[in-house]
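Issue: copy button drops trailing tokens. Both records pasted manually instead:
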Amino acid sequence: MVMAGWATESDTRRSGWLAFAASVLVVGLITYGSWVRASGSGLGCPDWPLCEGNLLPTLEGDTAIEFGHRLYAGITMLVVATAAMFAFRSRASDGVLFRILGGSLLAIIVQAILGGITVLTELDGNVRLAHLILAMATLALLTAGALRGLGVEGNSRSDVKILSILAVWTGFVMLVGGSIVGSGLSAGCPELPFCDDRSPIDAAWMHGIHRTAASLLLVALIATGAWLKRQKRTKLSVALHHSATFLVALQIGIGILAISQSLPTALRVLHLGMATLIWWSVVSQWLLALRPRSDH
């Protein structure tokens, strides 16, 4: 009985560490996906699930970039599956963890299918947006699994409401940004800080909303940072909040630089990578507020 209990506890922690590793991989995967898009390599493999009709295509140019993304996604899926397996083994002691990581596995499988649909629809903007949204949801689920599996201490429940608003607002900023990219309007507003007569009306509206919402998010993070500092919070949560505030400020600077430099590929990729880190830090704070806090 003692050995069985030890194995269960060990499996729970293994699933937590693997979920954390998978979270890191997903951040990289989303950023890699941005490189595929920004470099024009989305149809480097014009078919799916094969690539140019082969399991292993000739790795050159756009094909190498797109196939590398598929390979990376496959490795990430295996890590998520392994985390779910360990959670399954320890489900008798923590069924919630298994449901979280089982949901993560299901999400990443659907994500792979959406990736295939993206190719088969020749990079349809709405499918690409759904692909991004599901990737962010997968990252949130894996983070929840990591926090639970590793038994990370939570924060006061008084944080939940305000952190929920910040998480929703961050998701909204990303959703508008993803819609701009999916609609092919990234270059539709070449002026700063607001669009001018060169911008189509739909681009002007979408870029205006995105820029305003991002600026308000920075203001909200700065303002809530002072309030949350007075609450009973863990060092991890405080560090995450400071990181999110710094990253949003940096992200705004990157966005301005990208526009002034006519959207170079490197800055476009960095922009989504930074957005992913911002989402991860904000949603992690929200998840910590949902976890129990030790009184010791």
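Record 2 (pasted manually too):
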Amino acid sequence: MDTAKGGSAALPEDALLPRDTRRALPIALLRAREVVMARFRPILAAHDVTEQQWRVVRVLGEESPLDATEVAERACVLAPSLTRIIKALEDRKMITRARDVDDGRRACLTIAPAGLALIREVTPETSPVYAELEAHYGRDRIELLLDMLCDLAELKE
């Protein structure tokens, strides 16, 4: 339709095609995640902890107690998965769960001594991974990447 008559101009045909997957942000982020996590998975597996469990323990190791909803958000875990993760971590005595004193429907999660011990065991083993990445990219570029990813994550819907 002619734009002079109030219609909209047609998009160029190539604008309707998807981006080259090598330059598509969602795929590039997934690819980068897999490259990084491939270095961490063996460490976590050696400690019999899943990636999601590790994220929950790490979040609670930084701040405890936290509401379960807040843990799910900070650890990037879906609420239904968190229920299963909480049970597994409670069974291993890594976290404790209590009802919120102000709202009995809410669960408050706290890191337990075994969870802190896990963090103390795993963290030194991850140092070589971080050192390898820093040696390859440089600390400044890693920090810039982290800043950019944090900015991107703050865009939220």
